[in-house]
Amino acid sequence: MMLTKIERRIGSLMELGILECPKCRGIFSVEGRSLKCQSGHTYDFSKKGTVNFVLGYGEENYSREMLEARRKLMRLGLFRGILDSIAAAVIESGIPDPVILDAGCGEGTGLEYLYGKLEENGVRARLVGIDISSGGIMIAGRTEKDILFFVADLGSLPFGDRSFDFVINMFTPASYREFRRVLKPHGKVLKVVPEREHLIELRNAFGLKEYSNEDIVAHMAENMSVVRREKTMSVFDAEGHGEELLLMTPMLWGKTEGKSALAPGSVTVSSSLFVLE
Q: Per residue in 69-122, pLDDT tens?
């Protein structure tokens, strides 16, 4: 008999055995379509097999339109060079069957691409994505790929100590204390930070100040050791996708209404991948 999506996700979750209650660090058991820890904290599976660990607090900043626009552009290859660099770092590590957390996965498109890229190269990775956006995780849960998605807070990850070989943190805030806790002894953080040229055409079109990543890089270096830094740069052809381009980035929130004509025909995608331990 064919398993439902929820049944498949529950099976994968129990096989991994990495979940812990973010409130009390208790171990979960599955009761029907719910997770329940020894202290009685209970979280239900959605129809898509995702779980929301931050019910009752947290703010939904990302609109469905923004998330769908980002998903469309990423599927067209907006961040492909960055994701290829992440895949290469995992492949080069030689770790068999790595367990990978994408901490700040958004709508899950990047993790879906990574799944396929690793599979093409013979790497059977176990992938987990978390984000504070319930709307993003709702979209991510559509996938038929064997990826687990959760609504969760970076500051209190619902996973046990030493659960992951890699933690990906791409263009989002970081919680290095939690990253260190959930990494295995040999584990690495793959941190993606924008460079000055990143989406510079959008900044120029809307008169935004020049971007600097100095504070982010300094904070990172205070908390973890930099093994290496790899810069990637590409130009994305956005012709015909101006509306999605203006919707997809938080830096333009509240600035684009009625100004779609300012959308550039192409944008520079520039970032550095830091491998941290």
A: 999 999 999 999 999 999 999 999 999 999 999 999 999 999 999 999 999 999
Residue type, 208: L
Task: Please report whether residue 189 resides in a domain.
Answer: yes
Residue 126 Cα distances to 18, 141, 169, angstroms: 11, 16, 16
For the sheet with 28-31, list strands across it. Answer: 28-31, 34-37, 42-44
Burial of residue 228 (number of CB atoms within 10 Å: 0-12, 13-18, 19+): exposed
The domain of 124 spans 54-276
> Per the structure, how many domains does the chain have?
1
Position 63, amino acid: S
Q: What is the CA radius of gyration of the chain?
A: 19
CATH number at residue 97: 3.40.50.150
Q: Are 53 and 43 in contact (CB under 8 A)?
A: yes
Residue 266 to residues 194, 208, 246: CA-CA distances in angstroms? 17, 17, 12
| Tokens of residue 42, six digits | 């209970």
Banded pLDDT at 255 (limits 50, 70, 90): confident
Judge contact between 277 and 99, C-beta under 8 A.
Answer: no
- Quick one: pLDDT at residue 5? 81
Q: Which of 160, 204, 203 lies closest to 183, judged by CA?
A: 160
Residue 258 CA to its chain's centroid (Å): 30
Whether 20 shows a pLDDT value over 70: the answer reads: yes
Distance CA 148, CA 230 (A): 28
